[in-house]
Amino acid sequence: MVGYVYDPIFTQHETGNHIERPQRVIRIHEVAQNFPLLRLPIAKGSKEALATVHDPAYVEWVERAYDQGFRFILNEDTILGPRSFEVASYAAGSTMPVVDAFRQGEITRAFLNIRPPGHHAERKTGQGFCIFNNIAFMARYAQRRGFEKVMIIDFDVHHGNGTQEIFYEDPTVFFFSTHERNNYPYFTGHEDEIGAGPGTGFTRNRPYGDYCSDQELLALYDDLPQDFDFDILLVSAGYDLMAPETISTAQITLDGLRQLVRRILDFAGDRPTAFLLEGGYNLDSLASSVEVTLEELLWYG
């Protein structure tokens, strides 16, 4: 059984004339209606829970920021609206029912149609459209529920700098990222970034050049860590690597995406696997990409 998370609250993070907009999750939800998915409840991450991955002072600041006159984090890329703190708290917190459903054996795979996205959010700041780091929050909650070793794969066209930073010294979480080299956030995601201290060797970046093809991308997944015995697999599913997107030069097709999802599911084996929405801004391409992902989550393997 494949779990699915969505709620209209995820449309309440108001971003105005911005590519990261509510219509993204609305279009995905329209597609999801065509599949036999187990709808899971949402949950709000408390400030104390958010502090498992973020500096408590940052969490407190986000809660008060809009009322204090702030309209963005760092720059205009990352918008703050009147309900952004609440919605971002739900985006992170709604990963918890998925982990619980995995633990209880109700589902084996899941897709989380949530926003705002999360993988650029670091311990002390949001950025790059992201407020709280949803996948990092899910990883920490999964560990509290007994999934001791967590594997994170990030195929968004942008490097998940926030996820990397949060787990950089942690040997219990392996972070594997493929991303476009000459793209945001520009100064992270190099191959020589492999972790630090006890986390050395548990970060692996495989950047690619402009106009990446299906074959070039898929070849990078030969470098997935075969010796990391993880208990759960979490995927930052950013669909901004697809050919119709204008935010990158990558030329990934729907067939290439299907092969990528299958590679990831083969790697997961019978371990719980969740795909969390990150990027993807061309609405037609996004809908088609998630349709392919849901088909594979339901029927591959």
Question: What does this protein look like?
Answer:
With 301 residues, the chain is α/β, with parallel strands linked by helices. It has one domain: Histone deacetylase domain (Arginase, Chain A). Helices cover 33% and strands 16% of the residues. It has an eight-stranded parallel sheet with strand order 2-1-5-10-9-6-7-8, with helices on both faces. Strands 3-4 form a two-stranded antiparallel ribbon. β1, α1 and β2 (38-39) form a beta-alpha-beta unit. The two termini are 12 Å apart. 49% of the residues are buried. The model has no long low-confidence stretch (mean pLDDT 98).
Strand order of the largest sheet: 2-1-5-10-9-6-7-8
Task: Give the name of the CATH architecture.
Answer: 3-Layer(aba) Sandwich
Tally the helices: 10
Quote the beta fraction.
Answer: 15-25%
How are the secondary structure elements laid out?
Blueprint: E1 2-5, H1 23-32, E2 38-39, H2 47-50, H3 56-65, E3 72-73, E4 75-79, H4 84-93, H5 95-103, E5 109-112, H6 134-144, E6 150-154, H7 161-167, E7 173-180, E8 203-208, H8 214-220, E9 232-237, H9 254-268, E10 273-277, H10 283-299
Parallel strand pairs: 1-2, 1-5, 5-10, 6-7, 6-9, 7-8, 9-10
Antiparallel strand pairs: 3-4
Helix pairs in contact: 1-10, 4-6, 5-6, 8-9, 9-10
